[in-house]
Write a structure and sequence with these properties.
Layout (H helix, E strand, L loop, with lengths): L1 H4 L9 H12 L12 H13 L3 E5 L2 H11 L7 E5 L5 H8 L3 E5 L9 H7 L4 E7 L8 H11 L3 E4 L7 E2 L2 E2 L6 E5 L12 E5 L2 H12 L15 H4 L12 H7 L6 H19 L5 E2 L7 E2 L4 E6 L4 H13 L5 E2 L23 H7 L2 E5 L6 H19 L3
Parallel strand pairs: 2-3, 2-4, 4-5, 5-8
Antiparallel strand pairs: 1-9, 6-7, 6-11, 8-9, 10-12, 12-14, 13-14
Helix pairs in contact: 2-10, 3-10, 4-5, 4-8, 11-14, 12-14
Length: about 400
Amino acid sequence: MIANLLHTAEPIPTSARAELDTLMQSGDLFRYHADKDAPVTLLEQEFAALLGVKYAVAVSSCSAALFIAMKALGLGNGDKILIPAFTFAAVPSAVVHAGCEPVLVEVGSNYRMDMDDMHQKLDGDIAAILVSHMRGHTSDMDALIAACVERNIPLIEDAAHSLGTTWNGEKIGTIGAVGCFSFQSYKLVNGGEGGILITNDEDIFAQAVIMSGAYEANWSKHQTGANSFAKYQNTLPLYNTRMNNLSATVIRPQLAEVERRAADGLKNHDYLAGKLNASRHIDVPACLPAEHRAPDSLQFNLLDFTDQQAANLVKNCAKHGLKLSIFGLDHDNARVFWNWKFLDGIPDLPKTRAMLMRACDLRLPAALQQTHLDQLADIILGGIEAVTTKA
């Protein structure tokens, strides 16, 4: 059944098997046990090289990376941070966990931050912008960087879905002060769980290392070339968000697959998007001109649909083995801002609400073949026809 294929992951490369066996025999899973070159340390070095930055800190999740990034930037004590209203609940949760207040920005029908609303809300109380490239859709990075430079505030990139994406040739995650990535199973690189933050700022790096859990002098087992560790030792809280060696050993050999997986994912996305866009009832928004994407999923908007027709489409697809999600109609969906009831005073955000009520979400692993994509198109287009054809 096609539904099963949408939640499968590519096999872990065989090159990891020997390393995993050695690690399991040694039982040496803690990143700081070895004097040097622990798998987590090697992952940090290799990921920094892959992204072309100076520093990387591997942690337990992308949410942890976002939290540590905010703390390393000195944010907290009620600081207000702009975030897009279309993201995963873990993003505003990380903001709250860091002691900050998320300010939600409208998101348009193209799934990207509404720049007019961003500028309206970017007043003197805003301490940072956290842009979430939700589902791999890149917001206008030129506008965001310019706004941050003008106000001398940091830009944090939640690039959980955007490993392999570029903006004007620059790698997403390297444009802001800090970039945060995910190794959760549904991402381009599958570690089951895990995350990593990258930066070119030595002070941010040193603080992130210590706060991630480098107690005593364990910071010396991280990347060399930074001299700021000593001044932060014993002055910062330890949040113990460290990655373990087992996760790093699974992740490291997959870095060599990033370019190929990104290319395959884009090819699959554009092929299916072309088929779906042939329907007058479907719009798959185009990427922005500066954006070269590496999608692991596909989103499309239903045009001129009622709530009932949208619900009927979901049911029709389910009959044919495809679980299609419409964000706003999917009960308790964690990507829907009105479900973030842990926040106080959630605004209405009519643009984002309208988009979520008609935006369909489809996971699209890079390993899918054209025959699978044709099946998906047939099911979706057949469902569209069934619910829009008058009896």
